[in-house]
Amino acid sequence: MESDQAGAGAPVDSSPVWSERRSLELGRALLLNASFEPLCVVSARRAVVLVLKEKAEILERNGAEFRSERTSIPAPSVIRLVHFVRVPFRTRVPLSRRAVFARDHHRCQYCNRNAENIDHVVPRSRGGTHTWENVVASCRNCNAKKEDRLLQEANLRLKRTPRAPHAALWLVATAGNPDPAWTSYLPSEREPNAPREAVPA
Fold it and tell me: How far apart are the C-alpha atoms of 153 and 13, rounded to whole Å?
């Protein structure tokens, strides 16, 4: 099965082997549990396989198309499992620079400019912890202004209180730039952490 961007008129490759470059061109898909809980991000090709095996249904498309000699199927951007799958409960999202930027939407939490650094609200030299509740994204200027001082000492204020994000945010953090079609299926960071479901083998 081959893919062609809609209207692009790309030639059909009869080889069953997909190159890494070709897979990247087809994009990725957000995989949801039957309960609509986000599970993970998979390649569009993997998503199509799940749909063809009737393990999932397509909720959103990305505009590309998989084609074979006898059939064609749109490349999904969001799919949902037909049957609910249970997995171990994940209570906290691992703290990392990429995850902090994803939680804070790449905006400085002091001035709302583009973020370039992460900052400990209470500096570690002053007893601050390296936890979600004490780490925020910041721009270079605010980071330099604050240094190892407390907020009141640096005359800075947080735009919002930092907290551990919903576990589903980890999907966005690890996937890189999310597809805009995923937005309505991802929970707000204001929502409490919830069980994360597993992907079928």
Answer: 64
Please report, for residues 109, 121, 129, 132, the alpha-carbon distance to residue 126 in angstroms, rounded to integers and kept in the order given. 20, 10, 9, 17
CA pseudo-torsion sign 177, 188, 41, 10: negative
Question: Domain limits of the chain?
Answer: 2-88+176-185, 97-154
**Residue reference for tokens 């898909």:** 29
- Rounded to the nearest 5°, which phi and psi values hold at 102? -65, -45
User: What residues contact residue 47 under an 8 Å CB cut-off, 6+ apart?
Assistant: 29, 31, 56, 58, 75, 76, 79
Mean pLDDT in the chain? Answer: 80
Phi, psi of 20 (to 5 degrees): -60, -40
Q: Which helix or strand (DSSP H or E) is residue 151 part of? A: helix 151-154
C-alpha 85: how far from chain center: 20
Question: In sequence order, which residues have a C-beta less than 8 Å from that of residue 69 and are 6 or more positions away?
Answer: none
Distances in whole angstroms, Cα of residue 184 to Cα of each of 83, 85, 171, 193: 21, 21, 14, 17
As a whole number, mean pLDDT of residues 166-178 equals: 73
- Please, are residues 65 and 115 in contact by the beta-carbon 8 Å criterion? no
Predicted TM-score (pTM) of the model is: 0.59
For 97-154, give the CATH class: mainly alpha
Which of the residue ranges 20-24, 31-35, 83-87, 164-168 has the most confident prediction, judged by mean pLDDT? 31-35
